[in-house]
Design goal:
Rossmann fold; 224 residues
Amino acid sequence: MAAIDNIDACVFDAYGTLFDVTSAASHCQEELGEKWAPLAQVWREKQLQYSWLRSLMGEYVPFWQITQDALDYAMATQGVENDELRKKLLDIYFELDAYPEVPAVLKTLKAGGQKVATLSNGSPDMLQAAVDNAKIDLDGVISVDEVGIFKPDPRIYQLAVDQLETPKERICFMSSNAWDAWAAANFGFQVVWVNRFGQPPERLPGEPRDMISDLNGLPPLLGL
């Protein structure tokens, strides 16, 4: 893969890229049993669907509300009725596990002179709690809450340009969500798709510059 030159900032999606969105349900395997994995999958799918549908409907609510609504739907699909477990699952969402390579990779990027930030659908308090729990150092924790619409609206990607004071062509953007990677490339970022789950490419406008299987592959791409 050719090196990506002239990058001043590395911006990451949060959920699925820096943080493992299945970890809340996986930490409740004792209570959920074999239902934990399908519940985690439906929970995530509904999170995304509700964010897109609410954007189209012009009915924005913070991502924390969407997360609760999506969990309620997921629990209903699995026939789980347990208010105490619901609270536990939501509490854990503020302390999602970071993927193992994340802290070291971010340190390498910062040591190499890169600004490092996250740009996410997450509500500000959700994002800051996850960042603090993972003990990672970021130059920006940017939430769509500032605009009142969800990705992949181009106004969201512009937030990173404005807040980091960096031209879009000098921002390297990473997401494990393929639709997000394609949309960010279409916006004009230099995009590296973190294809953690071995998915096929999207059929959407925009195309990532490179693909890696986890974030360990990023520093070499940037010559670090």
